Amino acid sequence: MIMGQKRWMFLLAIFALLLSFTSGRGVLKLKSDDDRHVYNHTLTLTLVEYASAVYVSDLTELFNWTCERCNGLTKGFEVIEIIFDVEHCLQAYVGVAKDLNAIIIAFRGTQEHSIQNWISDLFWKQLDLNYPDMPDAMVHHGFYSAYHNTTLRPAVLGAIERAKKSYGENINIMVTGHSMGGAMAAFCGLDLVVNEGEENVQVMTFGQPRVGNAAFASYYSLLVPNTFRITHDHDMVPHLPPFYNIFPQKTYHHFPTEVWVRDLGFTNLVLASVEKVCDNTGEDPTCSRSVVGNSISDHLKYFGIDLRCETWRQCTIVMSHEMDRFSKKDSNGNLVMSRTLPSTNVNETKTLLENETL
Question: Where are the coiled-coil regions (predicted)?
């Protein structure tokens, strides 16, 4: 009995020590020594919920934002568009979070029934595509194509255009995703800056794999500096495809800024989590690269939020017939669900007021 009490007192003492190194909800106090964007813990907790919601299979619940995951910090979100690419088993949505004054774009990652095979494949993936207009920059063809060469890109760009007409041109854009969805989110954020001329773009991904080489990472960090890659403890996926020190320019290389979430505790008892904002290299040896990436469970849960589908399902569309009026299918069966938005364009409003005066 006495030994048990001493053990618990020891655990409590360790817990108090851990808390002394953390602040707020467990963010390690770090001073920024450069002009990088400041990491926002509360925003991260919000965006991880958006990244989780995109895994919802019932498109009716997702479109109406009534799903079980559509509460908490994302309550009140308005979905503008859902994109379901049956050919490639991809899903994404676009909507507006009025509390953040931002358009949110979320991409779904690999479904968990195939994630072990997908992880195995990542060990052998090669850099096989030159990124347009970026000398020496090479990327993973599969990740690039999943965003650029599917139903996703035109639907996402169209939804952004409609949202800006309704909510104003200066509204922020936040892009998020988990796993492969994080890779697509990165390419989307870069696309919006490079090809669409957007300025207020922030990207935050969870458990994202490497997507390009060092040259690509350098371009990306300059063009989309407001980017945070959240990695969780021993998550396997951020370690893939592998980084080889002996071929630094020819191998895959992460872009910054990584935020490493480390669970602290004993065995399966997590006493606290500490978020470390890593350096600006993208491959900080003191962050996730300091441990072996050997955990799938760490990949499927971030901040206690599940990042996977509720149940295993083939790539089929699940929704009620009443949603048909919002839906359009192409010849391949790919689906886009769109909500009509009222236009509040400044020039249109001015014209209406002038006509009323006359």
Answer: none
